[in-house]
């Protein structure tokens, strides 16, 4: 049972009303979904902060949740916000050693949009 002081997960919603990260997770095979949701629970339990290899700082307030499943390397960009909110900004399947710059740019764009429209998450 959730307590009022518990951290909570929020999915960033774009201007079309799409929850990009939720849609990404829902398209994954069931076993991978289970692992992603387990990591999200762990993130909530640890108050939005996990050490490597589970999480890594990306830029500014943005961090990545790192969910590896066999050869699939899922990355979910997120940040923690006031009132114990964990905002999931962007997700993608990592296929290269370095994170593609355009993925970071998408997360930053969603972060800025969230800050302008944060009231819709109250």
What is the straight-line distance between the termini?
Answer: 20 Å
Main sheet properties:
5 strands, mixed
The secondary-structure element order is: EHHEEEEH
Say how many strands there are.
5
Class from helix and strand fractions: alpha+beta
CATH topology name: YaeB-like fold
Features:
alpha+beta, YaeB-like fold, 5-stranded mixed beta sheet, 3 helices, about 30% helix
Description:
The structure is a single chain. The protein is built from three helices and five strands; from the N terminus they run E-H-H-E-E-E-E-H. By secondary structure, it is of the alpha+beta class. The chain has a single domain, classed as YaeB-like fold (2-Layer Sandwich). The protein starts with 7 loop residues before the first strand and ends in a 6-residue tail after the last helix. Strands 1-5-4-3-2 form a five-stranded mixed β-sheet. A hairpin with a 2-residue loop joins strand 2 (55-59) and strand 3 (62-69). The chain is globular and about 40 Å long.
């Amino acid at each position: 049972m959730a307590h009022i002081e518990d951290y909570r997960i929020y999915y960033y919603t774009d201007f079309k009303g799409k929850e990009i990260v939720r849609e990404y997770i829902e398209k994954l095979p069931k076993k991978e979904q289970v692992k992603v949701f387990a990591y999200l629970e762990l993130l909530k339990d640890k108050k939005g902060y996990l050490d490597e290899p589970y999480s890594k700082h990306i830029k500014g307030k943005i961090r990545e949740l790192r969910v590896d499943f066999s050869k699939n390397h899922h990355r979910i960009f997120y940040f923690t916000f006031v009132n114990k909110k964990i905002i999931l900004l962007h997700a993608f399947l990592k296929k290269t050693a370095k994170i593609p710059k355009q993925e970071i740019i998408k997360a930053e764009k969603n972060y800025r949009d969230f800050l302008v429209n944060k009231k819709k998450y109250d």
